[in-house]
Amino acid sequence: MSTTATPAGAAVAADEGISTRRRRRSDRARAEARLGWMLAGPAFAVLVLVTGYPIVQALYDSLFRYRLTAPDEREFTGLGNYGVILGDPLWWQALGVTALITVVTVAVELVIGFVFAFVMHRVLGLLRPVLRTAILIPYAIITVVSAFAWQFAFDLTAGFINTLPFVPDNFDWFANTWSALLVICLSEIWKTTPFIALLLLAGLAQVSEDMLEAARVDGATFKERLFRVIIPNMKASIMVALLFRALDAFRIFDNVFIMTNGAAGTQTVSFLAYSQTIGRLEIGLGSALSVLLFLCVIAICFVAIKGFGVDLARARGES
Predict the structure, then answer these.
(1) Is pLDDT at 286 greater than 70 in this prediction?
(2) Domain spans of the chain?
(3) Which has the closest alpha carbon to 72: 64, 81, 63?
(4) Per-residue confidence at 2, pLDDT binned at 50, 70, 90?
(5) 87-315 maps to which CATH number?
(6) Across the strands, what pairs with 67?
(7) Which residues contact 193 (CB under 8 A, 6 or more apart)?
């Protein structure tokens, strides 16, 4: 007596097979998650302790009118410090300058970094490690050293930029807001583009050569392969690079402190918090500024993750 599987029976068997595979993947994912927490748990606990205490302390201090030179005059004001900051045009100017630097530097770095990553990915032989090392040199330089170098290059009297034929004589780059911001942005781009390139290079390595070859066989041009195959498959890497770099750029301090010291309308949010906390010893206002900076960073994270809509688990091959 022979038996034949009915279509309904085959469908049930297929569903059971899919459920079994999903259950196995789920068990594996849970096991990997447990192992990850076991390995990273101690470091995570230390990180929470080291970073959590200053955040809580800053939040607490922001609720007081507290000047370090008069600790006995500490007075609870609730959200009064936040009202003072949000009602001050200097805060909005600093926020605008910070946002401008972030948008300009991150956008330019993404474009140049992708070009560098593509070149590093395609170059072969002994030239590959040499090229990668050369591109990464600026990122290895300490930010303070880099800022001093750029300040010296654009200095009114000692810098070599003013000796170039297309630059006006005796032009003070740091006396004007836009020229000073241009130098700050250029120094940031030069310093951190290799970081973007390194992250995008990792994304390029995940793009399947079979997909690219199939696109070539179908007659796709380089532009079509770039925008329909390469970039869509690098979405997760681009989001990580954008997020990391935007968070770093929004907290810019070193270049502003060294090049202009906040003069000529170049104050950023981080510099404003520094000037209140360290310069004027206004612990309450400085803490409130730090809390607002932290909230801005959280907002950037939320917008970047939701805007890209990347499922990082699926990008890692988990479903």
Answers:
(1) yes
(2) 1-61, 87-315
(3) 64
(4) very low
(5) 1.10.3720.10
(6) 282
(7) 108, 109, 112, 113, 116, 138
